[in-house]
Amino acid sequence: MEYRTTIRALALLICTGILITACGNADDSAEIPTSENTLENSADTGTETEISDDLGEYDFDNREFCIVYSETQLGTAWPYCTDEVNGDILNDAVYQREINVEERFNVNITWFDTGGTMSEVSNAFRASVMAGDQSYQLAVNHMYAGFTASIADGLLYDFNKLPIINLDKPWWNQSARENLEVDGVLLTMSGDLIYSYYDTIYFNKQIMDEYQIPYPYEKVYNGTWTWDYLAEITKDITRDLDGDNTLTANDRFGFIIDENLSTMTRLIHSNGMTIATIDESGRPTLDNLMSDKLQSVVEKYYSFVWEDNRCYFASKTDELGCVDMFAKGQSMMMHTQTSKLPLLRDVEFEFGIVPLPKYDENQDGYHTLASTQMLLLPSDMDDPEFVGVILEALSFESYQQVVPQLYEAVYQNKYLRDSESEQMFDLIRGSLVYDSMWNYGNGGDFSYLIGNTVGEKNIDIASFIAANIAKAQAELDKVYEDIENNYKN
């Protein structure tokens, strides 16, 4: 294997910044109203109190800590590793993180890039564990590709048994911990070492001004930003710009979305539900999925998508994609992910972002499915204490060094156009949820049930569930049984 160049040089000083948490930042927007709803969704800012990783002193005698990942899969806009400083504040923060951990613990951190967009990381991880060569101490893996196969073959190490790390610390995602732990066993985890891409609603301020529609920030803050309201303000915006009496990618719409099963199914989570839940015995189950509320969500979303000519699907075969159309001013609003922000850096009009709406005003807050890579630990590790120390240190340094610079440099200085959107980013980041169907379901049809129903102009969600639930539950049951057989001792 050819490892990426190890970070060896002494750190260069980067821009001084205020230590903030994964989801908080002090800014000059104090005049914007807040609410209990906002506070419930945002992570503890902790700007007044410094926090420690409580690791103590270790000297690992220049031992190597290798992380296997795929830059192709993760994207290049947000660097995971770098060999040198280059003046870009985020790149330099990542560099500083590695240097801080290397110098503090006398360790050599390397990253091995497999390339590829699906199972390449899990395949490399598997080969290493099966060979027992301990090539990798950590993997940054696709959220489900190859994951359940690794569980079945006993290739993973339980995060709950890893010494030193403290999963109660703010650099670890608590929703992942709660929704992916099966009968007390946690075989994957997410935290600030991993960049998260969030679903969000982008809006064109110019078009909203034209129709005298208030920007939705106030609605978000007072808890009234709902799908019903979004449907109301987007239904009269569509215009046949080219005059051919046919609505195409050349026209303007109230709302656009990629024709993407994954994106559509995020509606489940936005409306305060998950596909699978963990029952009292610690088993992932689909028993609680079908409900009057789910049927209502399907019917509302069907109306939103297919009626009143408000919505346009930008499929992969279209000349213009979703982001292309929005960048050309052809939609008032768009549903896509924050990973698309770099593509909008040079648009001429002002735009903002807000979270996906709630089901109704009584919902307990805004929720967004986390679309992230996941951390995996190899079962053949010979020194769990070493792995625990370095993983906790990298996660803490990401929390302290990288996340603030991601916020300040990437979102504030480069892409987001106003202070309100910066606050929306905080809120969205604090509302991420995980769903065991997504991580344990192997990307099957059931994981995309909204796309496979509403996307196909079908509102009979009960029939879809009835036809597919047995297979989906069997997949979850197998994960449970594999965990019971391989990891409960």
What features would you describe in this structure?
With 489 residues, the chain is α/β, with parallel strands linked by helices. The protein is built from 17 helices and 15 strands. The protein has a five-stranded mixed β-sheet with strand order 9-6-10-5-11. It has a four-stranded mixed β-sheet with strand order 2-1-3-14. The chain has a two-stranded antiparallel sheet with strand order 4-13. α3 packs antiparallel against α14 (384-415). The chain is globular and about 70 Å long. The two termini are 35 Å apart. Mean pLDDT is 85; it is low at 1-48.
Describe the structure concisely.
This protein has helices at 36-41, 71-74, 89-105, 120-131, 147-152, 174-180, 205-210, 217-222, 227-234, 261-265, 267-270, 292-306, 322-327, 384-415, 419-429, 436-440, 461-487; strands spanning 63-69, 107-113, 138-141, 196-197, 199-204, 253-258, 277-278, 284-285, 311-314, 331-337, 351-354, 368-369, 371-372, 374-376, 432-433. It is of the alpha/beta class and 489 residues long.
